[in-house]
Amino acid sequence: MAELDTFPRLLLHHAQVRPDRPAIREKDLGIWQTATWRQMADEVRLLACGLAAQGLTRGQHLALVGENRPRLYFAMTAAQALGAIPVPLYQDAVAQEMVYVLRDAEVTHAIVEDQEQVDKLLEILPQCPRLAHIYFDDPRGLRGYRQPQIASYERLLEAGRSFLATHPRFFEEEIGQGRPDDTAAMHYTSGTTAHPKGVVLTYRNLIESGRSAAQMEGLTDREDVLAYLPLAWIGQNIFSYTQWLVVGFCVNCPESPATVMTDLREIAPTYYFAPPRVLEALLTQVAIRMEDAARIKRGMYRYFMGVARRVGGRILDGQPVGLVDRLRYGLGELLVYGPLRNVLGMSRVRVAYTAGEAIGPDLFTFYRSIGINMKQLYGSTETSVFVCIQPNGQIKPDTVGPPAPGVEVKVTDAGEILIRSPGLFREYYKDPQATADARTPDGWFRTGDAGYFDQDGHLKILDRAKDVGKLVDGTLFAPKYIENKLKFFPYVKEAVAFGDGRAMVCCMINIDYEAVGNWAERRNLAYTGYADLASRPEAYGLVRDCVEQVNADLAADAKLANSQIHRFVILHKELDADDEELTRTRKVRRGFIGDKYGALVDALYAGRKEQFIETKVRFEDGRTGSISATLRIEDAKTFAPAAAKLAA
Amino acid sequence: MTPSDRGIGAPILAVEGVSLAFGGVRALQGVSFDVREHEVRAIIGPNGAGKSSMLNVINGVYHPQEGTITFKGRSRRDMVAHEAAAQGIGRTFQNIALFRGMTVLDNIMTGRNVKMRSTFLEQSIWIGRARREELAHRRKVEEIIDFLEIQHIRRTPVGRLPYGLQKRVELARALAMEPELLLLDEPMAGMNLEEKQDMCRFILDVNEQFGTTVVLIEHDMGVVMDISDRVVVLDYGRKIADGTPDEVRGNQTVIDAYLGVAH
């Protein structure tokens, strides 16, 4: 076999070099079932033959919809072996959201997880007439379906078996035709604006990017990874597909989305990725459980977390720390940090990344302080993820590190970050205009992010360039920065800050139902549901404390002192991707929310004490309804800027 | 899907002229109906109509004073509870009857009890047959856990679960004995819309996947009309209608008795 420059070639390589090492595991019927590299290669061969027999050819797109299941991973490699292009879709998208992608990519074949996804595709079949073949992994509930488009994964394998009998060399020949500059995968950007765009990535893009990062971190074939994030997201492709095939480690698929925490603990991955949102949820859980713990444990936790905050990060970075503190930390390791890492499923983690959005410094330091090598990285779908990675030992909570090997980064005068790298995407699918717009004439990719290099050459990201605004008095307003500060509090799930072109900053807040609910229960506060809890004066009191602490923090920074939050409101419903308030990667869509809750924004700035609001909601079964409430708006205390405080 | 597609066959259960009284209270009076193989059969009626009593007669908790029960071709005056279980009748209860301190897994394992052959002694020292048996049963239980999507609570004590999930665990336990006839006493009582939809789907899936015949009592008319093949209506211990959901819906006696008229 020639160069290892396509995924199918990498698969054949592993099947030869480490045939009996585990390639992928899945927990099924309560037991981790393993497929070795050889088994995987055999199944991918059958699958590729089956897909070919069913008419999938070079250059066509294969849609994949479902949770992380080994068979969907096999399908990706099988499609690539044929020169077809896998297009993973977000499995929790409602049917109508899939129409655009299926039509745009002219999808003819789809492999999906279960009845839920089959139903969605059947619903939109009239709008996607090209879609002629749908294969399902889990037959449950599908026995009675008579539609000619539908067949089981097993049937596809059977078709592959008979095809293979007559075309024994087919699979290897097709792989032989693959070129490193062929399209390897297409990922649709989640689209904070307008329609999603298909980002076309080649084998060279993905493999070079994944390989140099793997070398930098010294990844080996002994790593274990838990694949729990959506397949459609580029990070999942990089960490659990590209690097998996490049390095040859083992990917583990959880039993179901609800069991991820248990599965995480059982697998104890060595290489781990979590977006800040997941880390935040984990920490919230820990915080809640610690508050419920016995007094002695609570005291121990508090004391040793204090020690960890002071010296934990420095010990991890190998910096000098006094003997007494070292002993204290050692004791804490025994009593608190070790057990805590175990509960979090991170006792074996060698390298952990977080990215996707800015992470609160306190949240980030928490994980590092208990001895987890958590690092930030910066990247996007268009750059095959890796742009900046924090090197071991040079971790700062508020930067994303220096450029990764092979990547060039520069910042324009206007503050926008530009990138040139081997991982840079080829084009937006069928959109030459957007492709041209995304690059400068001399070939740099415009990220649309605002940031700057600090004195050590580490990149610091502020916000999306277009989101950074100004208050009327001309001072800087970086909404995400403020929202992130709020969201670090376990009681605040989501925050949306307004202030661009206004005299002051106001905020909409979602409480964290679990955390505030638990807090209320411990105080014997009865509540009937989310809306009720959110409207309680006690909840307002709780949130006001958070807001005022943020204000105190902001006041300490001369540049941001004017963006203190003057007024806030707690929303009566949780912001939801189904209502288009969040993207599928759960980022708030500030402009959309501003329009949708326009009455509320007006009330915030008009100084009203309460405001009636009615909003449309979409239920999980796709129906829509509306909910209304009269929301209370409260003022928060603001602080004099730092200089004045010193004088006082 | 039409009934013939699902292979609805000959009656698997027939009750004829069943009367049951507790002292002066006549719970059932000459009730007759049959249940065909593979169908979903609903029993409905206002409070106190005798629905639960009927289920209790079928699986041998109550012994009727009159009438016969024919199950799988064998007629008898009354069922005996353990015999009903051995013959393949499983059930869930209106008020959940699980072991609250035990985990979900252990609760479901108890449903396999009727299928276990090893002796108490073998089980207590965990050798030979007992070990093989438990592994096989555990696999079956895991299939049911997977089927009902309760993997995430496998190790959780039942008492800590919300009501809707407890109902699901109870269904799981009933399924663990691989019943041919499944009696469900208000499987959706007290659930919210989403939980009800889930439960409906599970009941239909059980019916389709395992071919289990289902007899269910339910108050939610929407649910009953949606998922049942045929419906029996009881009122004050008497059968007042029997037929497809459409027939029953149009029946004036039912409308008067069940949906209420001015008395």
Walk me through the structure.
- The complex is a heterodimer of chains A (648) and B (263).
- Among the domains of chain A are: 7-18 and 36-179, Rossmann fold; 469-647, GMP Synthetase, Chain A, domain 3 (2-Layer Sandwich).
- Chain A has 22 helices and 27 strands.
- By secondary structure, chain B is of the alpha/beta class.
- Chain B folds into two domains: 1-88 and 179-263, P-loop containing nucleotide triphosphate hydrolases (Rossmann fold, 3-Layer(aba) Sandwich), CATH 3.40.50; 101-178, no CATH class.
- Chain B is built from ten helices and ten strands.
- Chain B has helices at residues 51-58, 81-87, 104-110, 120-125, 128-147, 163-176, 193-210, 221-227, 245-250, 252-258; strands at 11-22, 25-36, 40-44, 66-71, 74-76, 89-92, 181-185, 213-217, 230-235, 238-243.
- In chain B, α3 (104-110) packs parallel to α6.
- Chain B is globular and about 65 Å long.
- Chain A binds chain B through residues 28-31, 140-141, 143-144, 255-256, 258-259, 262, 620-621, and chain B through 1, 5-6, 138-139, 142-143, 145-147, 149, 151-152, 154-155, 194, 197, 201, 205, 208-209.
